[in-house]
Write a structure and sequence with these properties.
- The protein is mainly alpha-helical and 99 residues long.
- It has 3 helices and no strands.
- Helix content is 85%, strand content 0%.
- The mean pLDDT is 93.
């Protein structure tokens, strides 16, 4: 335990900051996980927009670095694009299989 007043204050601040960062990182992880578990392209695109908002807000508050936020957004966009391409390939295969 700290003995000096300034050290006690720093401890209080660190506890508050840790709780804030943990809460926001949890929101970030949940938003990303929701996109990755989307069943349809439409659902993934809707969740992607929500995830973008969470990522941008968390980065703006300094919980993660701006470049880390950009990397996460890029990775999610790549995932949704892959999902979109797979859906298009399946619908193309289904329409060509049934004349």
């Amino acid at each position: 335990m700290p003995h000096h007043a300034s050290a006690k204050k720093r401890l209080r601040q660190a506890e508050k900051r840790r709780a804030y960062n943990r809460r926001n990182k949890r929101l970030l992880k949940e938003a990303i996980k929701a996109v990755l578990q989307a069943r349809t392209v439409e659902e993934a695109e809707r969740l992607l927009q929500q995830a973008y908002k969470v990522i941008d807000r968390v980065a703006a508050h300094g919980v993660i670095h701006e470049n880390a936020a950009a990397n996460r957004k890029s990775r999610l966009a790549r995932f949704v694009n892959t999902l979109r391409q797979q859906a298009a390939a399946q619908s193309g295969a289904v329409s060509s299989a049934h004349p």
